[in-house]
């Protein structure tokens, strides 16, 4: 295997902590040779953490791509609205690409990404669908394919976002407003759409969705509350208090609030910063609950439920077969198999001692590095067609929610392609 040189575009939480640690720990396989990041503090932290010299540190992705090609591959973990543009620049420059989800935050971006993947078909273009790389979902796929419980009939899939994670990301944080980013079913759940495609082994036929911003809005604000948690008389009894979420817990998301998240630093920045705002007085507009009903080409049906109103951040699932049912908890790494006509159920624990809670991240980056090293663009994981389909499902689900229509996927994406082509032809 050839040693793979990697550049990281975007040194935020995922760009710093999700994938680069594996590269640092496996210097015989790969190395980080450059970083591009607009924020000086994060740029300096990344450079120090991954031993980069000044000539390998860029103040923007644009400056990086303007320079000569210095790596084999790039990992793009910037804000969502820049994913497509930077993927385009990377492919044009000759880089293999690992692209954080969502790959694009617009339908026309997906149309162009599909075109780019066909033009640069000698390059690996992967999206960060980490769920596929976990033992939990691999085992569920094995159970389905074995036919031991008969044919798969229906799936109930839940993304329990967790109240603290939701208010951090989708009320106070970077993904709070779909006008600036994307609908939550795309930003948070496009890889749940992908998992449904993966498990069913079929394309999506149609989708219908329902949901709204029910709680985290100004209607829930009381006169006894304040714009900031530090000045609020209700803070002590509020589960969404920034003090409870950030100061009383040590979570990776604290790194998004402050580059050096000591209690003192967090305390100071929360008093005036965006993450200290009252959850009922933010400029958020993404829904806090949403249900989608999905039908696949092989006649398997599914419901997908995303909700802010759960205590734990977890995914739970139930698979219903002609001869049994399977239930699973992703966080607990547990799968329960119940065969019809048998009283005893089988419990499978998919946790492995050599894998951490970052199992999906680790296995994903391992696969990407291996594919780049072998220069193999045909292996599993490099299927951009399926990745695009999952994104189209997410956009279709949001369109259904807003329009109150059942959306046929093929027709929906064909219209997107036609409209994109028509708009571009008028600009020529």
UniProtKB/TrEMBL annotation:
<dbReference type="InterPro" id="IPR036291">
    <property type="entry name" value="NAD(P)-bd_dom_sf"/>
</dbReference>
<dbReference type="Pfam" id="PF02894">
    <property type="entry name" value="GFO_IDH_MocA_C"/>
</dbReference>
<feature type="domain" description="Gfo/Idh/MocA-like oxidoreductase C-terminal">
    <location>
        <begin position="141"/>
        <end position="314"/>
    </location>
</feature>
<comment type="similarity">
    <text>Belongs to the Gfo/Idh/MocA family.</text>
</comment>
<dbReference type="Pfam" id="PF01408">
    <property type="entry name" value="GFO_IDH_MocA"/>
</dbReference>
<dbReference type="InterPro" id="IPR051450">
    <property type="entry name" value="Gfo/Idh/MocA_Oxidoreductases"/>
</dbReference>
<protein>
    <submittedName>
        <fullName>Gfo/Idh/MocA family oxidoreductase</fullName>
    </submittedName>
</protein>
<dbReference type="InterPro" id="IPR000683">
    <property type="entry name" value="Gfo/Idh/MocA-like_OxRdtase_N"/>
</dbReference>
<feature type="domain" description="Gfo/Idh/MocA-like oxidoreductase N-terminal">
    <location>
        <begin position="4"/>
        <end position="118"/>
    </location>
</feature>
<dbReference type="InterPro" id="IPR004104">
    <property type="entry name" value="Gfo/Idh/MocA-like_OxRdtase_C"/>
</dbReference>
């Amino acid at each position: 295997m050839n040693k793979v040189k990697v550049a990281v575009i975007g040194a935020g939480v995922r760009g710093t902590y999700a994938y680069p640690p594996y590269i640092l720990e496996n210097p015989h396989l790969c190395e980080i040779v450059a970083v591009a990041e607009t924020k000086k503090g994060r740029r300096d932290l990344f450079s120090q953490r991954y031993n980069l010299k000044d000539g390998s540190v860029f103040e923007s992705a644009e400056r990086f791509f303007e320079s000569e090609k210095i790596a084999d591959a790039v990992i793009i973990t910037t804000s969502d609205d820049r994913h497509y543009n930077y993927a385009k620049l990377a492919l044009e420059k000759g880089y293999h690409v690992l692209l954080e989800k969502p790959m694009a935050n617009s339908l026309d971006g997906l149309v162009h990404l599909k075109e780019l993947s066909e033009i640069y078909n000698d390059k690996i273009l992967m999206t960060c669908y980490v769920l596929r790389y976990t033992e939990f979902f691999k085992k569920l796929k094995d159970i389905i394919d074995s036919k031991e419980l008969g044919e798969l009939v229906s799936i109930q899939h839940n993304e329990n976002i967790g109240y603290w994670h939701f208010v951090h990301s989708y009320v106070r944080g970077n993904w709070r407003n779909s006008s600036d980013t994307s609908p939550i079913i795309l930003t948070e759940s496009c890889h749940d759409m992908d998992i449904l495609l993966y498990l069913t082994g079929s394309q999506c036929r149609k989708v219908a969705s329902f949901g709204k911003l029910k709680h985290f809005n100004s209607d829930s604000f009381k006169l006894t509350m304040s714009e900031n948690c530090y000045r609020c008389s209700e803070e002590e009894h509020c589960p969404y208090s920034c003090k409870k979420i950030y100061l009383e817990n040590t979570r990776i998301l604290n790194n998004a609030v402050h580059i050096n998240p000591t209690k003192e630093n967090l305390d100071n920045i929360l008093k005036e910063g965006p993450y200290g705002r009252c959850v009922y007085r933010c400029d958020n507009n993404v829904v806090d609950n949403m249900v989608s009903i999905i039908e696949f080409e092989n006649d398997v049906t599914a419901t997908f439920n995303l909700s802010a109103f759960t205590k734990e951040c977890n995914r739970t699932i139930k698979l219903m077969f002609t001869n049994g049912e399977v239930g699973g908890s992703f966080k607990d790494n547990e799968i329960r198999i119940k065969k019809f006509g048998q009283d005893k159920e089988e419990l499978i624990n998919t946790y492995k001692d050599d894998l951490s809670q970052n199992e999906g991240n680790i296995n994903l980056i391992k696969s990407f590095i291996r594919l780049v090293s072998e220069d193999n663009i045909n292996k599993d994981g490099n299927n951009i067609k399926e990745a695009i389909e999952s994104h189209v499902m997410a956009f279709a689900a949001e369109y259904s929610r807003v329009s109150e229509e059942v959306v046929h996927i093929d027709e929906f994406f064909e219209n997107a392609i036609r409209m994109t082509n028509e708009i571009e032809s008028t600009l020529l």
